[in-house]
Amino acid sequence: MALIPNFLNRRSNLLDPFEGFPPLSSHSNFPSETSSFAAAKVDWKETQNAHVFKADVPGLKKEEVKVEIEDGRGLQLSGERSQEQEEKSDTWHRVERSNGRFSRRFRLPENAKVEEVKAAMENGVLTVTVPKEEVMRPDVRPIQISG
């Protein structure tokens, strides 16, 4: 039994401002995969100026990864790790590193500047930065209460 309430867990979705965004189409161009690589782990944080996505894609080159904006509000990260070439003289004793395709999709919030998305790869981590527009708040004016 956990002694720490779930709402204290920093990864909890309790205060997630993007929870409830409808998922993008469940249709995928990729067949279902059973490898762990098929579900590349992605962190999404919001800073004062941007939404930042970090995806673990170890062993991939930037040419093997795609970052796309779909339907104006959908961010799709995808790629493929090819199987290592085998020589006839090779003897495999263990194979734990997975290969195959991955595809992750996220619905971006209204304040995302999708035309200014930037992506970079370093040490097996794909970082996608989506700048935010400043949301204009309506003018607030006091109303006299009659009475």
TrEMBL record:
It is found in: Cytoplasm. The keyword Lipid metabolism does not apply. Its main location: cytoplasm. Coiled coil: none annotated. CDD domains: ACD_ScHsp26_like (cd06472). Residues 72-96 are annotated as: Disordered. The keyword Cytoplasm applies. GO terms for cellular component: cytoplasm. InterPro entries: A-crystallin/Hsp20_dom, HSP20-like_chaperone, Small_HSP. Residues 81-96 have a biased composition (Basic and acidic residues). Residues 33-147 form the SHSP domain. Gene3D superfamilies: 2.60.40.790. Keywords: Cytoplasm, Stress response. Forms oligomeric structures. Belongs to the small heat shock protein (HSP20) family. This is SHSP domain-containing protein. It comes from Quercus lobata. The lineage of its organism: Eukaryota, Viridiplantae, Streptophyta, Embryophyta, Tracheophyta.
